[in-house]
TrEMBL record:
Coiled coil: none annotated. The lineage of its organism: Bacteria, Pseudomonadati, Pseudomonadota, Alphaproteobacteria, Hyphomicrobiales. It comes from the Bacteria. It is an enzyme of class 1 (oxidoreductase). The gene is mmsB. This is 3-hydroxyisobutyrate dehydrogenase. It comes from Alsobacter soli. Its EC number is 1.1.1.31. Belongs to the HIBADH-related family.
Length: 294
């Protein structure tokens, strides 16, 4: 089995590290938060005193951190302490430019690397059913895949350095735009006297069908497991959706892509967050649309 360094033991990282332990790997973790580190320790993760100590003996290092600046700072600090030939995997959701910069740092240090952001949320992290979207060289992907399989059920090689992050933010731009579209249709239907169930029954079997409607329906009733039935508790918090939409807009600006609906979705989620709703599930934006958010 493999010795794995794991840096960033938060809502996602802790259950992911716990699944690596369950798969029989030796996991040496590190987190700035003593409380988060202690929670991971209770799941069998050995806790190192410093990030450098977590990577020193590791064949594979996984990072699960908030944003690009954290990943670049941690990789910049610890790569010099890593074994030559180790594999570094960043599973955080970060901007494509920082992801490519991180690959460059690894290459200079003689370390293989993958960007491997995830979808599936904290539920998927606990259940070990995440989807990993990977960018990097084919041999790095081949080495990383069996490790990622302990934490996920679908592991996709999307292309070279940064391609995993590109796939993640493109997917989440579709999600943000489609959720707002579904919410708008329910709000319009309400004004037209159409019941939620009738609209759901028609649209879920017609050309309006999409995940935001059929799996994550933003009104209570038609899909009993959706956050709408639970006071819009996340789920996937609106603040995280805003983060991903901003990443998509940064990438669109730097690549010269026209994404007008992505841009408007980012504005709407920014207004939703500014109104104090960033901690609600992202489908809760339907409440603001009812009140006239435009
Ligand atoms: P989180 O805030 O719960 O965890 C981040 C952890 O990183 C914290 O424990 C924090 O103390 C630690 N940390 C920050 N800087 C550090 C440093 N320099 N050294 C060591 N530890 C450090 O966040 P999360 O929900 O676990 O998300 C992590 C990443 O996964 C983010 O990029 C997020 O966008 C992405 N993501 C989250 C979800 C979700 O549903 N929560 C879903 C998919 C992707």
């Amino acid at each position: 089995m493999t010795t794995i360094g794991f840096i960033g033991l938060g809502n996602m990282g802790a259950p992911m590290a716990a699944n690596l332990v369950k798969a029989g790997h030796t996991v040496i973790g590190y987190d700035l938060s003593a409380q988060n580190a202690a929670a991971a320790q209770a799941e069998g993760v050995a806790i190192a005193a410093t990030a450098a100590d977590a990577v020193r003996d590791a064949d594979v290092v996984v990072t699960m951190l908030p944003a690009g600046k954290h990943v670049l700072s941690v990789w910049g600090d610890v790569l010099a302490h890593a074994r030559r030939g180790a594999l570094f995997i960043d599973s955080s959701t970060i901007d494509v430019d920082s992801a490519r910069e991180a690959h460059g740092l690894a290459q200079k240090a003689g370390v293989a690397s993958l960007d491997a952001p995830v979808s599936g949320g904290t539920g998927g992290a606990k259940a070990g059913t995440l989807t990993f979207m990977c960018g990097g060289a084919g041999d790095a992907f081949a080495r990383g895949k069996p490790i990622l399989e302990a934490m996920g059920k679908k592991i996709v090689h999307c292309g070279d350095a940064g391609a995993g992050q590109a796939a993640k933010i493109c997917n989440n731009m579709i999600l943000g735009v489609s959720m707002i579209g579904v919410c708008e249709a329910f709000v319009l239907g309400e004004k037209l006297g159409l019941s939620h169930q009738a609209l759901f029954d028609v649209a879920s079997t017609s050309s309006g069908q999409c995940w935001s409607l059929t799996t994550y329906c933003p009104v209570p009733g038609p899909v009993p497991t959706s956050p709408a039935n639970n006071g819009y508790n996340p789920g996937f918090a609106a603040a995280l959706m805003l983060k991903d939409l901003k990443l998509s807009q940064d990438a669109a600006a730097s690549a010269g892509a026209s994404t007008p609906l992505g841009a408007h979705a980012a504005q709407l989620y920014a207004a939703f967050e500014a109104a104090g709703a960033g901690g609600k599930d992202f489908s809760g934006i339907i409440e603001a649309l009812r009140e006239g958010l435009a």
